[in-house]
């Protein structure tokens, strides 16, 4: 486990190099406590049967969309669902007539389900979305306008890697890979948290060491401390 000194050092590195920490810090990616309980239960496979059904159905839909048009997939799935509900409604009506029971509409529970969005929920969602957009925009501005030369160079390397990823995979393939990762990586990290954190800490420390050496060799964009700047002005 990391000591308090190591944690303080890592926090200092994160303040100076948010790009490194955001990519190599699994705690920034896997935080089940920040998720809705139902979402957390699904992607962490708390209920294997329910997660398996959602994962399988979602994967089949995404593969179908990659092979056919979105409109065709939506139309066929809607027809299948509609056929199933109509058949079930007719079956229940016939059984009620034969058994002379009056159980009511078979989908009464779902028809009475409240699907409206409250104004408070919408405002909370918009607030969270705006905060993320503002943070993302500020980070892009920092990288593109070269506030920190090393971070901008690393961002350029990431974009260069993305050009190869885009050449190897189309957009739908990346969506499928992201969906599979959503249902696998969180659980893998949860089961192997200690060993994964150890290796990532090693990689993060090596990257920090290399970055510091580069900054010493190319002192571009390094900001002088306020005290040092004041003393320099006094000397002049």
Automatic annotation (TrEMBL):
Annotated compartments: Endoplasmic reticulum membrane
One of the Pfam families matching this protein, by short name: Reticulon
Membrane topology (UniProt): Multi-pass membrane protein
Residue stretches spanning the membrane: 53-83, 157-185
Tree of life domain: Eukaryota
Reticulon domain span: 39-236
GO cellular component: axon; endoplasmic reticulum membrane
Keyword terms of this UniProt record: Endoplasmic reticulum, Membrane, Transmembrane, Transmembrane helix
Major subcellular site: endoplasmic reticulum
Protein name according to UniProt: Reticulon-like protein
